[in-house]
Amino acid sequence: MESQKLVISPAPHVHGSNDTRRMMGDVLIALLPALVVSVLVYGLQAFVVVAFSVACCVLVEWFVQKFIFKRPSTLGDLSAIVTGVLLGFNLPANMPLGLIAIGAVVAIGVAKMTYGGLGKNLFNPALVARVFLLVAFPVAMTTFPEATGAVSGATPLALAKESLKAGVPVGEVMQSVDLASMSLGMKSGSLGEISVVALLIGFGWLLVRRVISWHIPVCVLGTMALFSSITWLCAPEEYMSPLFHLLSGGAVLGAVYMATDYVTSPMTKKGMVVYGVGIGLITMLIRLWGPYPEGMSFAILIMNSVVPLIDKYIRPRRFGSVKSK
Amino acid sequence: MKTFPIGGIHPSDCKEYSKGAKIERFPVPATVTIPLSQHIGAPAVACVAKGDKVLVGQIIATAGGFVSSNIHSSVSGTVVAVEPKADAQGNMKPSITIAVEGDEWAEGIDRTDTVVKAINMSPKEIVDKIAAMGIVGMGGATFPTHVKLSVPDGKKAECLIINAVECEPYLTADYRVMLEQGERLLIGARILAKAIGVDKIYIGIENNKPDAIAHLTKLAGAYLEIEIVPLKMRYPQGGEKQLIAAVTGREVPSGKLPIDVGAVVQNVGTALAVYEAVAKNKPLIERVVTVTGSTLASPKNLLVRIGTPMSALVEYSGGIDGIGKVIAGGPMMGRAVSNLDAPVTKGTSGVLLMPTQESLRKAEGSCIRCAKCVEACPMGLEPYLLSALTQQNDYDQLEAHYIADCIECGCCTFSCPSYLPLLDWVRIGKAEVMKRMRERSQKK
Question: Counting one residue from A and one from B, how many pairs have CB atoms under 8 Å apart?
Answer without folding.
Answer: 175
